[in-house]
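Q: Hi! New to this. If I give you a protein sequence and the SMILES for magnesium ion, can you show me the bound structure?
A: Yes, paste them in.
Q: Okay, here:
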Amino acid sequence: MISVRELTKVYRQPTRDVVAIDDINLDIDDGEIHGIIGRSGAGKSTLVRCLTLLDRPTKGQVIVGSQDLTAVSDTKLRNARRRIGMVFQHANLLSSRTVAENVAMPLEIVNAKKAERRARALELLELVGLQGLEDTYPAQLSGGQRQRVGIARALAADPDVLLCDEPTSALDPNTTDDILTLIRSVADRLHLTVVVITHEMLVVKNLCDSVSLLEAGKIVESGKLSEVAADVNSQLSRSLLPLPTHQPVTADLVIEVVGKADAVNTPIGSTIAAENPVTVDIAAANIETLGTTRFAHYLLGINSDQPINLTGIEATLARHGFSVRVRAARGVQA
Amino acid sequence: MNWFEELLNNRALETALPEAIWETVVMVGIAGVATVVIGGVIGVILHLTRPGGLVPMRTLYAILSSIIVNITRSIPYAILMVALIPFTQWLIGSSIGPIAATVSLTIATAPFFARLVETSLREVPSGTVDAAQVMGMSNGQIVTKVFLPEALPGLISAITNTTVVLIGYSAMAGLIGGGGLGRLAYNYGYQRFDSQVMIVTIIVMVIGVQLIQWIGDKIVAAVDHR
Ligand SMILES: Nc1ncnc2c1ncn2[C@@H]1O[C@H](COP(=O)(O)OP(=O)(O)O)[C@@H](O)[C@H]1O
Ligand SMILES: [Mg+2]
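A: Thanks. Here is the predicted structure of the protein with magnesium ion bound:
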């Protein structure tokens, strides 16, 4: 549905050039909810602005459906944009219009009749749970309600794609959950392809099917949530499945392992000890469900009275579906 | 009591005052509408073409800006109105009367109003423009559906302020043939030492300005939903 090819954005400044987006490639399937996570300054805002052509990319293509947005005329671009609904961090509603008039705005552009616009607005307001508030002004609403209006407005023109730029960053935790649930449900119901930009791992965990990690303008990790989380060596896995706070571990061998689905039920300590002459301590553990998949993340301290055969342990773990990361290996065979 | 009786019997007030008020209303009315239209368009162009605006055009912005700064800051209205006499003569065939005065009044206040418009438009959050663009709005639609309605309270205040400034300028324009309350005060108050006319003129001016301010504030309160 969405393909990004070699997307680059350079901000030219008098003293130096800032490469905000650096050769990004990305493919998002029909009906997928894709999260793009990165810390402040990573280039998230620049990326969304380039995806909608609010900023012209310096180089590269943004293909939505089958149309390359970077290659079309201004008029065609305006039409193509109508296939994209966008939700903003601060909703960006017009204060001079009522809630219903805000929601109906995208329909005004295509010259829909007034009665028709009103009917569609009411329908959408019901979808986002704001029935009865159609004739109030945005200033009278809470942040969460305003974001719901923003979502209704984004859906007004029946888009195929929903772009969300930090949709919950200005909201409290409870409201965040409500808004994420709402986005999930409208995406499923209307079969939308969704891109969510965020700096909060919680949003990725609760909403996304797949995720990309943006760092200094580059995508450094990307994949299905269930796959990146299962790889203990990925940065995303570490923040998706964080370990609880724990004592420093001193052992001959300290490893972290992550397993998913059936692997979660494996008794990790006895399984390793059954095939290797070692004792295993579980120093910290996190069992969590992401989407519909269960994950287990363990920090293990392994000791033995003889040099440890790391390869053997790794083989055992691989056979049971665990990925392994070695943190410290003092007592390991050379 | 004597003074008050005299006031009621003052012929000048009976005939000249209504006429003067009417002339002032004509001057301020015509110049006001022209100012709002011309200054409004310039204000919108300024906002759109400024660096970082919707359609940045460095040269046009610089030229408009400098014309405005010069008319509003460097040239006092008293000098501008005299300097514009030949132009007015050429444009409408006369340089006397309230209609003629509207030419210099408009040229003096339109830039002032344009600046106020630009300032009001700048207060429209850029996020609302992003939202409009992503919806597929054209620049023209963004002006009429986003910028102007969102800035409406500020624009109404700008019209109120500009009208008050116009009333002041119109009194000055009265002195060189524009007529109106300025002329009345000058003829009777200054040349004939008729203090009654002077005082009544001042009262009419104060009431007029208060009324305009009050109406303006009411409209702002009605359209402001922020
Ligand atoms: N208009 C701009 N001009 C110059 N540099 C910019 C501009 N916008 C963003 N940048 C730079 O690009 C980088 C990425 O910024 P941004 O996309 O805002 O990151 P994020 O949204 O992830 O915090 C930063 O280094 C920022 O300073
Ligand atoms: Mg940002």
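A: DSSP finds ten helices and no strands in chain B. Let me know if you'd like me to explain how to read the tokens.
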